[in-house]
């Protein structure tokens, strides 16, 4: 049976913290493939207008050049509207009916999992994997969800911090991969 990881987020922009999560998930969960899935609109960030889907996708693709087991999937962008995890997990379940699905989530989202849309069905379709983040407490996974915590390579950078640095004209490398930093500069993002 194949093991497939699903890693959703705004990725505005993708940064080294995300890449370290991806690498540790591939290694610790022995994933065959990991999909990074940018949200059209995160249900947790409805008050924020993200950068265009086109720019966020472009930066993800630049960050993943040459990777074979880690890829971008634009299913949520294509679907549009608010991006609910259940719709995405159903899609991957239909696409890979034989695979075991792992869904990665930040520790800050674990306590609210039971309130996510179609939580019962969601808990049956995927195992949830909690990503470590410096400063976040160890939160138990609430039933009926099943899952585990990643060891990871905790690295305390966030996309908001990158946007702030870009606004202040501070260097973005090595907090984002150099081609992503160049894309931000050339397109004057976050200024
Ligand atoms: P923002 O600062 O805009 O909220 P972010 O970097 O925290 O952005 P997303 O781009 O939405 O968040 O990240 C997608 C997922 O990656 C989320 O589950 C988030 O918790 C997780 N994540 C982001 N940065 C890190 C990090 N440095 N370490 C571990 N997990 C992270």
Beta-strand residue fraction: 15-25%
Q: What is the CATH superfamily classification?
A: HUPs
Quickly name the level 1 CATH class: Alpha Beta
Mean pLDDT: 95
Which spans have pLDDT < 50 for at least 5 consecutive residues?
none
Distance between the termini: 46 Å
Assign the CATH topology: Rossmann fold
Share of helix among residues? 25-40%
- Characterize the largest beta sheet: strand count, sense, and whether it forms a barrel: 6 strands, parallel
Number of strands: 6
Distinct helical segment count: 8
The structural class is: alpha/beta
Task: Describe the global form.
Answer: globular
Order of helices and strands: EHEHEHHEHHEEHH
Topology:
Elements: E1 3-9, H1 16-28, E2 33-38, H2 53-63, E3 70-72, H3 75-79, H4 85-95, E4 100-106, H5 107-110, H6 119-125, E5 127-131, E6 147-149, H7 159-167, H8 178-186
Parallel strand pairs: 1-2, 1-4, 2-3, 4-5, 5-6
Helix pairs in contact: 2-8, 4-6
Question: Can you describe what's shown?
Answer:
- The protein is an alpha/beta fold and 191 residues long.
- Helices cover 36% and strands 16% of the residues.
- It is built from eight helices and six strands; from the N terminus they run βαβαβααβααββαα.
- It has a six-stranded parallel β-sheet, with helices on both faces.
- The longest helix has 13 residues.
- The protein is globular and about 45 Å long.
